[in-house]
């Protein structure tokens, strides 16, 4: 998709003033168009599955269906759609659940006006986005002691551990390549080898593992 194309977006939040403000911020960008807005998660699911849409932005706390439930149903029906979640809370469990579902963006509502355009730009390039404040919070959390991940991590080389540390910082493949002065292909090969050694599969599984075990890497 070319950035000059009109990007069709659905937004859902049960706070009307916030919803209106979010639409105004998004539509200041000339190629971004809100095609539907709602305060109900069920309506968001229905319209996302009916309409031609590129991005769905969902508040985690909504009537009808919460953001995680809505995201799961939308992505089950239209896996090509990028979902961004909005949240008031810095909650690790909700974030990890979002990754498991396949959510590409995770934005704190307190910073949404600043972060939402960056989040949209990232997910359009198929790169995950997380609000910097949420990232800092998660990286400070201690991973739970677990012999199984630690045993699996022992199989990684020093280069693979470095890749994992950068993955845990939410760096994209290109950003990791630039950081380590290696090619993107080399990074991709490392990521595949790490996933194989750790027996990881599924969208965002490597990122989720890195976050959960960051203190052990």
Report on the architecture of this protein.
The structure is a single chain. The chain is α/β, with parallel strands linked by helices. The chain folds into two domains: 7-139, 3-Layer(aba) Sandwich (Rossmann fold), CATH 3.40.50.2300; 147-216, Arc Repressor Mutant, subunit A (Orthogonal Bundle), CATH 1.10.10.10. The protein is built from eleven helices and six strands. Strands 2-1-3-4-5-6 form a six-stranded parallel β-sheet, with helices on both faces. The radius of gyration is 18 Å and the shape is elongated.
Low-confidence sequence ranges? 142-147
| Widest sheet, order of strands | 2-1-3-4-5-6
Order of helices and strands: EHEHEHEHEHEHHHHHH
Could you give the count of β-strands?
6
The average pLDDT value, as a whole number, equals 88
Give the oligomeric state of the chains in this entry, treating copies of one chain as homo and distinct chains as hetero.
single chain
Major beta-sheet overview? 6 strands, parallel
DSSP summary: helix tally:
11
């Amino acid at each position: 998709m070319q950035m000059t194309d009109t990007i069709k977006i659905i937004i859902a939040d049960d706070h009307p003033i916030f919803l209106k403000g979010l639409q105004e911020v998004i539509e200041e960008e000339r190629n971004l168009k809100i095609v539907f807005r709602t305060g109900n998660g069920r309506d968001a699911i229905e319209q996302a599955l009916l309409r031609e849409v590129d991005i769905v932005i969902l508040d985690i706390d909504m009537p009808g269906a919460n953001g995680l439930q809505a995201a799961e149903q939308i992505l089950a029906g239209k896996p090509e759609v990028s979902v961004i979640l909005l949240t008031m809370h810095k909650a690790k469990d909700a974030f990890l659940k979002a990754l498991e579902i396949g959510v590409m963006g995770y934005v704190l509502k307190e910073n949404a006006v600043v972060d939402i355009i960056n989040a949209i730009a990232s997910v359009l390039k198929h790169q995950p986005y997380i609000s910097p404040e949420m990232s800092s919070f998660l990286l400070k959390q201690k991973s739970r002691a677990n012999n199984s991940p630690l045993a699996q991590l022992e199989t990684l080389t020093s280069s693979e551990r470095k890749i994992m540390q950068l993955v845990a910082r939410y760096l994209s493949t290109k950003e990791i390549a630039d950081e380590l002065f290696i090619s993107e292909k080399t990074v991709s090969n490392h990521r595949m080898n790490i996933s194989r050694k750790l027996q990881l599969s599924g969208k965002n599984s490597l990122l989720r593992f890195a976050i959960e075990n960051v203190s052990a890497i």
